[in-house]
């Protein structure tokens, strides 16, 4: 193709004529004849950059979508715009796709409110779309793929983690969503030709998905009772690989018709190795249109057996090279292919055989490791249930959603919860959980600060002490009176000052009383002793904002994730420098970390470079690279993790999300196992989980939390379905660590103590362990469902059928009705 003035954006082939290449450069469409190496047609009817182009299957016209938000149907041989209309309302990237040879188009783009949408158009009434469907608010352009034989439309976008499948109604041209398949993050997608499908297994379509590290096939299979026979209703005759006409004839104004072939393996012809006219063997086309001298094609490894076949000749049948087949064929009847195969086998050396055997042995080991068994997860099908409305706190007004993303936004303990409220002075409402119901419209008592509250946390060992961090670099320590707030409080029990910039998180130590850690925009991490109301330790090695911090379960180590893309683990009592450091999430929107599996591993949620939400699993002994990473979706809210150490489950939810994700963490590959997700009727602002001893183990409740919405606080219960609820499920509830009681004072911890918490059994006194329960005896069936007809052989059924038919056709000796009729005498006949 000659050099163009602008970058080539879109490239496609004419679906009817051979060798007609179409590409776009800025606002120009160019048609190029590959066989003659000539540029035939150039169309400049667009006013801005062309974003996409798609041919109709008859190869006569094509449609374009443009940055000027217009759709144009163009007849290239007449160099004229046949029809034109207003497309999507946003100038962002769009895609246009002609739906086979129908009078219908499909376009994807963005609405005026930046929402992704799909539109269906009728060419016979091109003034407006006949159907419009909003998808979501992701930023990736939706790529449409259409199968004309089945009418299936697939949609996915770059950066998406799912593929949507639709059907288009022939009557009213509406889109019907049939399925959404979750997959890895999409980089690109393509559709496999019909002739390559496995039709004898009901495969009607197959997509090839390009991800970050692999190409994944996504088959679409229609379930049938059996696949022994070819199903004609699923696979109509499809277009062959033969063109309808040549490029010369097409440019001259002729129109052709593609030949249809059957996909039935018993009827379809063998697929040959046909090549395009511009790619004939033995010829090399030069840019100037000339043909260089014929270059013989040789095979360096097999010079004696290499052959050049004529593409126009019928393909040779593939010989049967099995040992049984070759042993029975006489030598003088062997085909050329068999002789070639024998020659090749003679050239194989012992080293090649040894190498092949070694590869086969390695492959067997890998297969044995992969397919050794299916991993069982007891919490895979967990359920989340919102408790009755009578337990909700409702009518929350003016919820402040401007709290920084580094904050958990909502915190609760067994007695009360804290909710940020709009207003000057950093207002925080404290609600008593044992007083549910509808709140009054105004006049609620609050905690008032001198500046905006950026984060807050309950003392895990005291239900009355609350620590609040503010953007004036001050830390407020409150003691909530018993019974809750009765008036607005403005004077805390004490304040801490040390940071030079706005503080964005505060976290309590999991074991030591009165120890907290904070970080601010001065890039320092400071540890405080609330019993002395002073700063005791400081970490100052971070060159940028610290997104989060997390204590190890033993309270010895502190992990931080920084905006410079580094994960660091400190032993703060020994050194201000990290003991371990490695690369973290690449995104700059934020991150969260939590120690899992007794502190031996690190679970991190964050973003990649494309702002895709990701989760990572690290070995705390080696932070050089993550052990495993998985992409979730594309959303600006950071996923906040909560780890239940007894079930090894990590719950994930972001601010404004409508669903909650969950993973099981394990020490074996791939370390993260996705569990069931749950959806809520309204968007969740945040979750706050309660200690383990508050769970109702009799109902197999393994976690309990409060969910904050825009206007309410709702208790939610996480359970596992079980049958024998009368027994204590000791396989789900091991002895839990008592994390709601301190194991040491702040002075003990600062002196180097690492006293660990005791464990507690959650078994109620009136319940027996499930492991000690007697085995259930098979119940006697009240009504036996045995049916003798089910176990009869085919011969018995045939004999019974024949005897039944014979009984119905029994011989009758009675005279026929016409034999009893009396006629007239012969003399009564009158001529």
Automatic annotation (TrEMBL):
Please name the source species: Magallana gigas
Listed GO MF terms: actin binding
WD repeat start and end residues: 43-84, 446-488, 496-538, 539-571
Which residue numbers delimit the DUF1899 domain?
Answer: 372-437
- Mind telling me which residue stretches traverse the membrane in this protein? none
Keyword annotations for this protein, in alphabetical order, are: Actin-binding, Cytoplasm, Repeat, WD repeat
Hey, which family's this protein in? Belongs to the WD repeat coronin family.
Q: Where is the composition biased (Acidic residues)?
A: 344-354, 822-831
Know the name of this protein? Coronin
Q: Which Gene3D superfamilies match?
A: YVTN repeat-like/Quinoprotein amine dehydrogenase (2.130.10.10)
Residue ranges of the region described as Disordered = 263-361, 802-831
Localization of this protein = Cytoplasm
List the PANTHER family hit by this protein, alphabetically.
CORONIN, CORONIN-7
Looking up InterPro entries in the UniProt record yields: Coronin (IPR015505), DUF1899 (IPR015048), WD40/YVTN_repeat-like_dom_sf (IPR015943), WD40_repeat_CS (IPR019775), WD40_repeat_dom_sf (IPR036322), WD40_rpt (IPR001680)
Q: What does this protein do?
A: F-actin regulator involved in anterograde Golgi to endosome transport: upon ubiquitination via 'Lys-33'-linked ubiquitin chains by the BCR(KLHL20) E3 ubiquitin ligase complex, interacts with EPS15 and localizes to the trans-Golgi network, where it promotes actin polymerization, thereby facilitating post-Golgi trafficking. May play a role in the maintenance of the Golgi apparatus morphology.
Q: Which SUPFAM superfamilies match?
A: WD40 repeat-like
| Compositional bias of kind Polar residues | 298-311, 318-332
